[in-house]
Amino acid sequence: MKFITRILRPEQVRELVTLFLIVIIVLGFGAFLKDYYTGRTFVRISTSIAIIAVVAMAQTLVAITRNIDLSLGSIVGFCAFFLGVQLSYHHEIGPVPAALIAIAVGTAMGLINGLIIAYGRVPAIITTLGTMAIYRTAIVFYSAPEGGIVSAHRLPLWARQFASWSIFKMGDLDFRVMVGIAILVVIIFQLILTYLPYGRRLYAIGSNPEAARIAGFPAQRIVFIAYLIGGALAGLGGYLFLLQYGNLMVLAGVGLEFDAVAAAVVGGVNIFGGTGTAIGAFLGATLIGTLDYSLRRWPAISEFWRNAILGLLILLAVATDSAIMARLRLMWARAAAAMTMELAESKTSSSPQA
Amino acid sequence: MTEPILELRHISKRFDMTQALDDVSLAIYPGEIHALVGENGAGKSTLIKIATGVHQPDTGEILVQGRPVVIHNSQEAQALGIAAIYQEPMIFPDLNVAENIFISHRSRGPIVRWNKMYQDAREILAKLGVVMDVRQSAQGLTVAQQQTVEIARAISLDVRVLIMDEPTSALSLHEVQQLFKLVRSLRDRGIAVLFIGHRLEEVFDIADRITVLRDGKLISSRPRSEATVEQVIRDMVGREVEEFFAKSSVRLGELVMSVRGLTKHNVFTDVNFDLHRGEVLGFAGLVGSHRTDVALALFGIEPADAGEIVIDGKSVHIRSPQQAMELGIAYVTEDRRKFGLVMPMPICANITLPTLPKYVNGLGLIQRQKEMEVAEEFRRRLNIMTPSVMNTVERLSGGNQQKVLLCKWLNVQPKVLILDEPTRGIDVGAKVEVHHMINDLAAQGIGIILISSDLPEVLAMSDRILVMHEGRQMGIYTREEATQEKIMAAAMGHPEAILERQA
After folding, report:
1. Does residue B347 share a domain with residue B305?
2. Are residues B158 and B213 in the same domain?
3. Rounded to whole angstroms, how far apart are CA atoms A182 and B150?
């Protein structure tokens, strides 16, 4: 016990639990679904996780500060659409400039959210509920001259092939570029959250907003930047979304904000701020992606049941989280108290004046 | 003579009706523990908030090391070397001890070096003589440990003026001693400490200089060697009483409520009193005396754990406000906005809220006409200044809102009326009217408990005064024996101080 408390933090225990659940799900479905352990399953699950993971990263950043972004799905949709229309007319745009375009548009949308929430002091849930609808309507307006759709056959060749680009193959397992991008994003943000003062202050703000206000760092600007980065990530999500599906309708990306919240929460991000990690959110996205695909393969389960099961999973995660995490933290606090006692004793026994 | 590190010159600050600070000048020197004492509302908190940039003074100037400065927010105060520690520690529960210490630092490089941070945190804590696991998350810490972390944070930021706002109120005796050891070591290292306290014992124990504020004015400032407990208390109270309407003496009726050994763990202990018909029993005490908690227990909002309440000869256990109302107890809250009135609702609807079932006809519908008649009658009786009882409460002045709140509970026709700070935040004219009303109600045979931080008010209006200090009952004084000095001495935990001097 003492050994565990010294090498792991409660959050890491939580992540291991998520990982364990993923393994259970895979083993469970593998036992009675035919042809489950195939390269195809791996590609399907991993690419569907890629988009959710990137968007869940955006949700995680703002959730840590005790905020939320409901407009992420609409930002993803708009960026995918905007880029799709541009690529339809400008085949000369390459993959990297295209990504930058999507990210720029997403950042602009995040900027609007951030200004209203951080500086206008409008509650995040109201602001992003509003911009969710507004950005969605923007898609309808923007796409009207195109007949409300983006067609894959009008995109440049690279955009049609991008989703099947591979980084490397290990036997049957094909690691796609999209998945690589998502994992890179997760790693970068895990490093930001752990090793940059900016990341640590996100936690501080969510942990105690009142104290953050008087602690002497620019809390408003930090929240604003979180929305800015969130928008940029949603823009990247839009890029991946376009390249994954090619054909878009105005409802593109609807429900992604739900998946993003689900992934973050299932991965241990506290919706009331202060805790959560990029890796946790990624594991949450993996769990949801795996479950979603596996249920899809199971003929007895209809689409509506899938949604209900996802909803149930969120409720379970939130309900058990507060209880389990509280207990874990208590165990850790006790261990720390015991260690403090030890330290104090060793100090008194070694210093002659005491 | 050293130069003051922080100097406030002729600071005045006004909030709407109240002059929170009036031409206060204060100098704080390095290596000195400067204690600030005063009654509730004397202006202590406002002064701290001005020194830390939360509020801006209306007039006057702030000098740091002889240089005039303008402090816009706590960030700027911190940059000038001024930090404050509040009653409730301002820590980040999800971060660990080391992170809590360094969260505000700017100069620790672009990347968090965890091992170095833990090392530095250990060093700072060791310098303070504190043993603590720096990797421990802050939510497992006790209040005293959290305060230590806050002090460590301030020290690591190279703070030169440390303001401590009643830091001992949530600490045990042992923890207070530990804290004082720490504070003295800070002083010895040349840090100026501004210590706001309400336990005189502690103030006299720790302070090098004691400054008294009263009604926003600086009354006295003396080195501890020249100050006496009696003198400090006299400085804290000495207010004029003439504007107050005194209660006319009524012959006390029979016993209506009797309380024995009322206790709520960790809040208040062993409260005993009798209340007669027509009597006003004053409750005096400072912040943290838990007078209001006794009222909340009597009204069933936060029921007591132990003790006996006897009403009209019957022993009762009050578990809910509904039950308290049925027993004839009414409670007029101190926080009108939060617990008292529904601001966007009309006056008449506010008045009938607790007694609504009385205004319902056979179909279960509210009889507006009857409601309005009752409200109209109260409007005349209490002289509520409004064109119509259909107006919403939010449009009334503070004094008139207070009257509506009173009407609401008078309409219940209580036997025991608890008034919690009934004149806070209302102007003098309205105050006199409220005092008139209290007098009338007592004359009608209602037993009244008057909780008030306004000492002259309590003295003028009460037949007897119960004084509390940190959840303990310090004594009950009759109108004849009570003086401001005696009450204040008891409220500060020194009931004998004045008596000794007289003996």
Report:
1. no
2. yes
3. 39
Farthest CA pair distance, chain B: 83
Query: Which residues of A fall below an 8 Å CB-CB distance to B?
Result: 10, 194-197, 199-201, 203-204, 206-208, 210-218, 274-275, 329-330, 332-334, 336-337, 339-340, 343-344, 347
Contact A329 B137 (CB under 8 A): yes
Q: Where are the alpha helices (DSSP H) in chain A?
A: 2-7, 10-32, 39-64, 72-89, 95-114, 124-143, 157-161, 177-195, 197-207, 209-214, 219-245, 256-266, 278-297, 303-350
* pTM reported for the whole predicted model: 0.74
Contact across the interface for A333 and B112, Cβ inside 8 Å: no
Residue B247 is encoded by which pair of tokens?
């209660």
| Minimal Cβ distance to B131: which of A214, A216, A344 | A344
**Which domain, by its residues, includes A331?**
2-338
- The domain in which residue B397 lies consists of 342-413
Verify that B78 and B164 share a domain, yes or no.
Answer: yes
**Residue at A346 is within a domain:** no
What's the average model confidence in pLDDT over B449-475?
89
Interchain pair B95, A194: CB under 8 A: no
Write the CB contacts of B124 (distance below 8 Å, at least 6 apart in sequence): B101, B152, B155, B156
**What strands, in cross-sheet order, belong to the sheet with B59-64?**
B18-28, B6-15, B59-64, B67-69
> In the structure encoding, which two tokens stand for residue A313, read together?
């999973």
Q: Residues for chain B: how many in total? A: 503
With an 8 Å Cβ cutoff, are B90 and A197 in contact?
no
Q: Please give the residue of chain A at the shortest CA–CA distance from B97.
A: A336
Measure A92 CA to nearest chain B CA, in Å: 39
B489 and B402 in a single domain? The answer is no
Judge if B355 and B483 occupy the same domain: no
Q: Which of B104, B135, B139 sits opposite A329 (nearest CB)?
A: B139
A308 in any annotated domain: yes
Which tops the pLDDT comparison, B144 or A95? A95
Identify all chain A residues contacting B111, using CB atoms and an 8 Å cutoff. Answer: 195-196
* Cβ contact B336:B409 at 8 Å: no
B74 closest CB neighbour out of A199, A214, A343: A214
Q: What is the CATH number of the domain that holds A280?
A: 1.10.3470
Residue finishing a domain among B356, B381, B413: B413
Domain stops at, among B237, B258, B285: B237
Q: How far is B1 from chain A (nearest CA, A)?
A: 33
Dump pLDDT digits (tens) for A48-67.
899 999 999 999 999 999 99
Q: DSSP 3-state assignment of B197?
A: coil
pLDDT tens digits, residue range B190-249?
Answer: 999 999 987 788 889 999 999 999 888 899 999 999 988 888 888 887 655 445 566 777
Per the DSSP assignment, residues forming a β-bridge with B409 are: none
Q: How far apart are the C-alpha atoms of B435 and A311, rounded to whole Å?
A: 59
Q: Do B432 and B450 belong together in one domain?
A: yes
Cβ contact A13:A326 at 8 Å: no
Domains identified in chain B, total number? 3
Tell me if B133 and A339 make a contact (CB, 8 A cut-off): yes
How near does any CA of chain A get to the CA of B253, in Å? Answer: 50
Number of Cβ pairs < 8 A linking chain A and chain B: 94
- Specify if B267 maps to a domain: yes
CATH number for position B462: 3.40.50.300
Q: Give the residue among B41, B46, B14 at the shortest CA–CA distance from B26.
A: B46
Report yes or no on A71 lying in a domain. yes
Please give the ipTM for the structure prediction. Answer: 0.79
Number of domains in chain A: 1
Q: Are residues B435 and B385 in the same domain?
A: no
Domain presence at residue A350: no
B14 and B120 share one domain:
yes
Longest dimension (CA), chain A: 86
